[in-house]
């Protein structure tokens, strides 16, 4: 049922129209009445009628002035002017304002119904057209979205087809890609996409842009197209401005996002490169924890690749762990300073360096291992580093591991003789073989009884206990890697008897080997 509002400064006229016209019988609902032009404008905004009947001559804001204001509303109704004067100038003014029709007082109900029905037909026709247009626009949007996803995924000819379609439709001079990434999981990506699209709608007129957004595994991918010719740097500035509008809108909804922005391109043939740039910019948040908008060009302009100096300091750090563990803290500080000064925003590169250093720490610990401590394997290091998402966190992680290791190595250096270290090194490198006291003593060049006394006095352990602890430590690592059956693990770490392996494993770990599968 269509809604109607009538406005007339004559109270009696309004009452008469309300009571004598069979609105509901005709299929209409009278939702409001107004006695002035300004009141009519207010009530149009409040009740959102489909048809407004306006008296032209009202004190203050006239019917024509009210019509002009009402036409500025986003959902403007059809307007019918009402007057006691059959003046062509009134009708002409009204039609220039887009008025649907013109009625003379006193009202003839038959004539009014005829005009209302014509207005209803026009409204229904426009709504059908809008629905058809919306369906067509939705189809286009889905098609362009698929082409955009295909383009960044290297599907042949997708970017050329999208470029052809959008250039004809948008007449754009430059394109940028924005990748909107949620930094917390409490929001559904569909809800965030609505916020992004609402922010883009706000930007389209003021920034002379067009946009297209799709969901990807990495977040919400938005293609921005500039429709005016600008200086090169201004294309990047426009993309940054739009990104900040998105961040602010999401922030108002208490949604935290980070946006990676690519460099601009004059056509869509570079979409794959631009996508990689946007992903790289997002990944750079690893180093820039407080940044919400990161432009690829800004990140790359700060990158420095001083491979030689970095490599030399890494070697010194790893060497100090073996020669003089106390020096390693100073070497670590020098290494971290260089990393921070270089600002190399390549997450995988930096993580790989930290993995190498951590593994060197593990290697230094292995040379002095008595089986009493759990040393990080390469798999463990990779898993832990993979779960770290900021530069400061990975620095703290490496510092902790080195500090703990330095304490162990320093204690070992002060309490264990060169001869005992040689025995421990032999066990750590031959544990998987069928070795015993005689083989270890022969390698150290001492008697078996002297070897037993050395180990007991300097480590507090027997040869067999140390060998078993190292073997079980290695067995646990292999079981947790998931690539071996338990009996295969037993043989790999040097146990020829599975029952004995099971017994020793449970004694040292407190659990059966199968419980770790």
Could you characterize the architecture of this molecule?
The chain has 517 residues and is α/β, with parallel strands linked by helices. The chain folds into four domains: 2-107, Rossmann fold; 152-301, Alpha-Beta Plaits (2-Layer Sandwich), CATH 3.30.70.270; 307-411; 418-516, Homeodomain-like (Arc Repressor Mutant, subunit A, Orthogonal Bundle), CATH 1.10.10. The chain is built from 22 helices and ten strands. Strands 2-1-3-4-5 form a five-stranded parallel sheet, with helices on both faces. Strands 7-8-6-9-10 form a five-stranded mixed sheet, sandwiched between helices. Strand 9 (257-261), helix 10 and strand 10 form a beta-alpha-beta unit. Helix 18 (437-444) crosses helix 19 (448-459). The longest helix is centred in the first third of the chain and has 44 residues, at 109-152.
The portion of residues forming beta strands comes to 5-15%
Overall mean confidence score, pLDDT: 83
Strand order of the largest sheet: 2-1-3-4-5
How many structural domains? Answer: 4
What is the second-level CATH architecture of the largest domain? Answer: 2-Layer Sandwich
Shape: elongated
The Rg value, from CA coordinates, equals 39 Å
Q: Within the CATH hierarchy, at the fold level, what is the topology of the largest domain?
A: Alpha-Beta Plaits
Q: Count of helices?
A: 22
Major sheet attributes? 5 strands, parallel
